Amino acid sequence: MRVADSDRERMAQLLYEAMGAGRLTTAEVESRLDLVYAAKTFADFEPIIADLPAASPARPVHPDDGVPGPRGSVAVMSGVARRFDGVLPAEHVSRAFWGSVRLDLRHAEFPDGLCTIKARAVMGGIRIVVPEDVVVDVRGVGLMGGFGGGRRPGGQRSTVGAPVLRVTGFAWWGSVKVVRKSRESPRKSRREHRSSRRARR
């Protein structure tokens, strides 16, 4: 069976996780990435990840099927900015490898009252912007990096029944930071998003 771009991205994510766990070196990841993005079928994936645990390229995976909003953000030696204007998925996985990811949740909806973001930054940065009324529960670890933020200024108490954002994962020679900002009008938010994209260019 031939692979899609989403399948290649999934295999690349497995390599990043293996490097973060110390199973692969940076040079090994770079050489295997070339093979991943050149792969045509799932059989091509097998020798690339054969020595990694819990790695199975046997079938395509479509993580967005039936789930509101995107469930993943990946930046590889690049920058990704994503603004959520609708329903958040129950879980979102964000990975930055020699790059940066910016997630703007100021206009997001929390249908279940809780969203978990699994943030993994390897020599990169992940910045999560949340509105002031969201409760933030940070449970990540910084390994020669920083992982934190999201505290209310002055120890302000949260509102009963407020949505909860849980941030887990790790930052290895990188940073994962949660920043609070006030909610803005959709028009102003769109202008800021366009300005951020132009600045990256």
UniProtKB/TrEMBL annotation:
Compositionally biased region (Basic residues): 188-201
InterPro entries: DUF1707_SHOCT-like (IPR012551)
Chain spans, region Disordered: 182-201
Annotated DUF1707 domain residues: 1-53
UniProt feature coiled coil, ranges: none
Name the UniProt record assigns to this protein: DUF1707 domain-containing protein
Native organism: Amycolatopsis regifaucium
